[in-house]
Design brief:
Strand content: 5-15%
Shape: elongated
CATH class of the largest domain: Alpha Beta
Number of domains: 4
Structural class: alpha/beta
Strand order of the largest sheet: 2-1-5-4-3
Mean pLDDT: 82
CATH architecture of the largest domain: 3-Layer(aba) Sandwich
Radius of gyration: 34 Å
Number of helices: 21
Length: about 500
């Protein structure tokens, strides 16, 4: 017999096989390696491994006979010998009789098999499957224990290989999560957090307190630069998911052709350039919170795919048929009026209602004058530390200058202005003289007592866009582009220009 302890050659083959099993780290290729090696034994006609519940043939070695292969697949039927040996958890050997029966069907007789032995693959958490060998002469009962030793080593190698694969998966997930977070490092401390004393900010904090402890989907409304991401971070920080990741996705920055890969991941070879598996943002946020920034920028054709995962918690990676599940709390943000986008047919109504479960409106900085001073002080202090310069002073003249500005770029613009002033102050008082020299035409002329018609407002918006394009020499993108001047995403500006026939 191939495991006959009296044959030195057989013992050497067994020793080498067990060493190979101990070194194996790939649970996918292991079954094939084992059955191929077993089938090399002189007395073995075919070897087979079944895995899973219900058991399925994972590898066959030693025969290319289609009828024999089909017969091995049939042994996994409910109540068959494979399932019975798995349930018993003990090895089994038998002589294959010349007359067909339940455990020795006609295909075994036709293949001239005379003996068989099955050994359960007993893993740490229960039976993993069955190892079987079929021989051309009766199986030696003395070899059954040795076959079980081989099966035990296979089970241990499968357990180890799967554990190793899981470690690698978690390692890749952690690396990807860290990479995602590193690309978004604009920490709460640097932004000053939710700092302020205005009634508008107090209302936002009150809304956060109401919803943070739930898993309700939140839609944050507000102009660009008001601090919508800070609101999302605060919701996550106060939630039961605070120890899990908060993953941010800037929907405006994802090309349409990469949307599915970015959100749901892909498998290697799914498309040109897919040289390795990618987890995707939903997988990275599993158990935590997924922040969909500028959700109004998602192309209409792709919104249905997002809706499905929000409704069912299921998705497939690009290039993979396996359906995966995810448990991620959704917090979205937009600077668009999504109701208008819905009415215009640019945003799905069902997706809007799915997102707008608990809306939070963040007022622009011009409506939160009381927040300007504490924000400016926080930005100045942190900028001095970061730039390693003396801490400047903020006097009343500087505060008045800041409070008189309309801040079209909101908190983001205030931070940038304060940081530039800190560098120029060299430890002295902060000065914002440049704010008073801004051209009056930078903002549309607004009469506080006058009501403007839709046509007048459209004209004002159009003129403002034209001024921004002129100042940017026709450029939309980039640090000096019109989008940056207006404080809106470039894709949003491009859509507005197209709608107004300016491009």
């Amino acid at each position: 017999m191939f495991v006959d302890a009296h044959l030195p050659g057989a013992l050497e083959r067994l020793r080498r096989m067990l060493l190979e099993l101990a070194r194996t780290r790939d649970p996918e290729t292991l079954p094939t390696q084992v059955v191929d090696r077993l089938a090399q034994a002189p007395e073995v006609t075919v070897a087979c491994i079944w895995l899973g519940r219900p058991p399925e043939v994972r590898a066959i070695g030693g025969s290319g006979d289609l009828a024999l292969a089909a017969g091995l697949h049939g042994l996994a039927e409910a109540g068959g010998i494979v399932e019975r040996v798995m349930a018993a958890g003990k090895p089994h050997q038998a002589r294959i009789e010349r007359t067909a029966g339940i455990d020795n069907p006609q295909w075994m007789i036709d293949a001239r098999l005379r003996g068989m032995a099955l050994a359960p693959l007993l893993g740490r958490e229960g039976p993993l499957g069955i190892l079987a060998v079929y021989t051309w002469r009766p199986f030696d009962p003395l070899a059954l224990d040795t076959l079980q030793v081989v099966a035990d080593h296979i089970a241990a190698a499968l357990d180890a290989g799967r554990a190793f694969a899981e470690i690698e998966r978690l390692k890749r997930a952690l690396e990807e999560e860290n990479a995602l977070l590193k690309t978004e490092v604009d920490d709460v401390a640097r932004w000053g957090g939710l700092i302020g004393q205005s009634e508008a900010l107090a209302r936002v904090i009150e809304r956060i307190d109401v919803v943070a402890g739930t898993d309700a989907t939140v839609l944050i409304h507000g102009e660009s630069g008001v601090g919508k991401e800070l609101v999302a971070r605060e919701i996550h920080r106060r939630s039961d998911r605070a120890e899990q990741p908060l993953v941010r996705v800037n929907c405006a920055s994802i090309p349409a052709e990469l949307f599915e890969s970015e959100f749901f991941g892909h498998v290697r070879g799914a498309f040109t350039g897919a040289t390795r598996d990618r987890l995707g943002r939903f997988a990275a946020a599993d158990g935590g919170t997924l922040f969909l920034d500028e959700v109004g920028e998602i192309p209409l054709a792709l919104q249905g795919k997002l809706l499905r995962v929000l409704q069912e918690g299921q998705y497939e990676r690009v290039g993979e048929e396996r359906t995966r599940t995810v448990d991620a709390r959704i917090v979205a943000a937009t600077n668009r009026d999504l109701r208008v986008e819905v009415d215009a047919g640019r945003f799905r109504r069902d997706l809007f209602y799915r997102l707008d479960v608990f809306p939070i409106e963040v007022a622009p900085l011009r409506e939160r004058i009381a927040d300007i001073e504490p924000l400016a002080r926080s930005f100045a202090e942190r900028a001095a530390k970061r730039f390693n310069v003396p801490r400047p002073t903020l006097d009343q003249d500087a505060i008045d200058a800041l409070a008189s500005c309309r801040w079209p770029g909101n908190v983001r613009e205030l931070r940038n202005v304060v940081e530039r002033a800190v560098l120029a102050a060299r430890g002295g008082p902060l000065r914002f003289d440049a704010l008073s020299r801004r051209p009056a035409a930078a903002d549309p002329p607004v009469d506080a007592q006058r009501v403007y018609s839709d046509d007048e407002m459209n004209r004002l918006v159009r003129e403002n866009l034209e001024r921004a394009l002129s100042k940017a020499d026709g450029r939309i993108y980039g640090a000096d582009g019109a989008a940056a001047l207006l404080g809106v995403p470039a894709t949003t500006l491009a859509s507005r220009l197209k709608a107004m026939g300016l491009r």
